[in-house]
């Protein structure tokens, strides 16, 4: 976890409770305001401090590690611009450095200084802290000059950044807008092994960010879907035929609501029960036969050398290994050249050039903060959702009774003018649906509707016609997802 404490000693009791309740293994603190006379002493943790060189209660960083984790201090920087501490962990399959850095906003820090900072972190590392550097790429509201310099250093050294895109700095001045300045930088650590989440438990003008690092791939939650290429559509149709009852009464609003909800549940259940659960997209590479033969020859050579330990066998193994690496490198370069040469901005290639460019320039989405009615900021998703709900409740209200228009007159006028839906009309509408469009909250796609058996198709027709007769749209059909767009 990384957190700008803005003075840790005054917040120490609360900090210890939250640190243990969240089961944090390593905590990266910035703006600790510690000096040579004031230090941290935490039970079951080892603390490494980097204080301001002037020995004054400002800036500073602390790296807190559980005693059960095998580690040692790797490096330390205590300059006016940067206070950084790094430790190396030995308990993982591969050694990795963990560091914390606080970059003072009072100095103009250039790319070369940031490169030195990252270089000091080692060959493989995760570095967190308050860099006071804003850039759209990691989810800040704006891009400033220091953010540009840090972004260039990250790119040139082959590093990555990790953030949630949510603000981490919440100014006490209501005229200032929250922004993201606390995040993580890593090198030689794949994003597939990392997950990020925000923590709003601390009483400070900064919120914390928690990074979970696993030796195994961290599986991100997949969006729920009803079907995939493994779906058995024949079994799906047979199951629907067995479960749907065409004699269901649809004479009242209550009956129509229940029947509509039951229909959605039956379609969802039938789709799920006839679809194998996907574990995610598996990336496979089909290498040419000559590459696979070289792999086999190398494997035989290694087995021969393991048994004989003959220097000549070792020489043969080394030659085969080097030749295999050269061939794979050449193959990848040729594939990349072919891929780039076939990129196009035309419709015939499905606009492959723009898709490739967008993928390269993909950034962390900035989640704009929301101000409450009392002037404070909503931080968590729950707080934001409650504000949106209150706002929308004020907008979507029933029509006022002061209108001169008589709703009953309108109803009587159009009572007999809406014809019922025929099978032919319904079939035409379903066939015309775009299969690439996303489904609603019920997850029923155009592909599913096109695979409805005759009995389910007839029941859907009955539901629509019952809605017309009763002049009532079922509640479950009116559920909508509202996307709020920042102004």
From TrEMBL:
A GO MF label: RNA-directed DNA polymerase activity
Residue ranges occupied by any Endonuclease/exonuclease/phosphatase domain in the UniProt entry: 1-206
Keywords in alphabetical order: Nucleotidyltransferase, RNA-directed DNA polymerase, Transferase
InterPro entries: Endo/exonu/phosph_ase_sf, Endo/exonuclease/phosphatase
Keyword Transferase: yes
Domain of life per record: Eukaryota
GO annotations of cellular component type: extracellular matrix
Name of the protein this chain belongs to: Reverse transcriptase
Species the sequence originates in: Lasius niger (Black garden ant)
């Amino acid at each position: 976890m990384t957190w700008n404490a803005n003075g840790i000693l005054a917040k120490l009791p609360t900090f210890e409770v939250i640190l243990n309740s969240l089961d944090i293994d390593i905590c990266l603190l910035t703006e600790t305001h510690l000096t040579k006379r004031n230090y941290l002493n935490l039970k079951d943790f080892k603390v490494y401090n980097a204080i301001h060189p002037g020995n004054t209660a400002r800036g500073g960083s602390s790296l807190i590690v559980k005693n059960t984790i095998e580690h040692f201090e790797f490096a330390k920087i205590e300059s006016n611009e940067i206070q950084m501490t790094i430790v190396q962990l030995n308990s993982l399959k591969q050694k990795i450095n963990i560091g914390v850095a606080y970059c003072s906003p009072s100095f103009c820090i250039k790319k070369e200084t940031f490169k030195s900072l990252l270089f000091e972190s080692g060959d493989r590392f995760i570095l967190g802290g308050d860099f006071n550097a804003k850039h759209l790429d990691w989810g800040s509201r704006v891009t400033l000059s220091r953010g540009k310099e840090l972004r260039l250093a990250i790119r040139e050294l082959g590093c990555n950044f990790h953030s949630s895109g949510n603000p981490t700095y919440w100014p006490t001045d209501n005229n200032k807008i929250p922004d993201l300045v606390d995040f993580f930088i890593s090198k030689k650590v794949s994003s597939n092994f990392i997950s990020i989440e925000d923590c709003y438990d601390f009483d400070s003008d900064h919120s914390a960010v928690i990074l979970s690092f696993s030796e195994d791939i961290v599986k991100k939650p997949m969006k729920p879907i009803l079907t995939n290429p493994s779906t058995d559509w024949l079994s799906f149709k047979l199951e629907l035929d067995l479960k749907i009852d065409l004699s269901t009464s649809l004479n009242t609003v209550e009956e129509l609501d229940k029947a509509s909800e039951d229909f959605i549940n039956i379609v969802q259940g039938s789709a799920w029960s006839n679809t194998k659960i996907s574990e995610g997209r598996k990336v496979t590479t089909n290498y040419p036969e000559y590459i696979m033969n070289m792999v086999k020859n190398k494997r035989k050579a290694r087995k021969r050398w393991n048994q004989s330990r003959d220097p000549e066998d070792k020489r043969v193994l080394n030659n085969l290994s080097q030749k295999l690496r050269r061939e794979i490198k050449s193959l990848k370069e040729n594939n990349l050249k072919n891929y780039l040469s076939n990129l196009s901005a035309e419709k015939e290639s499905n606009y492959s050039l723009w898709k490739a460019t967008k993928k390269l320039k993909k950034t962390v989405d900035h989640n704009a903060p929301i101000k409450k009615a009392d002037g404070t900021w909503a931080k968590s998703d729950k707080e934001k959702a409650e504000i949106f709900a209150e706002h929308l409740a004020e907008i979507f209200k029933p029509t006022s009774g002061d209108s001169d228009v008589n709703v009953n007159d309108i109803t009587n006028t159009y009572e007999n003018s809406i014809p019922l839906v025929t099978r032919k009309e319904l079939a035409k509408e379903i066939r015309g649906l775009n299969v690439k469009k996303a489904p609603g909250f019920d997850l029923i796609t155009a592909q599913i509707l096109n695979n409805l058996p005759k009995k389910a198709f007839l029941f859907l027709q009955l539901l629509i016609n019952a809605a017309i007769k009763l002049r009532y749209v079922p509640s479950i059909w009116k559920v909508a997802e509202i996307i709020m767009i920042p102004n």
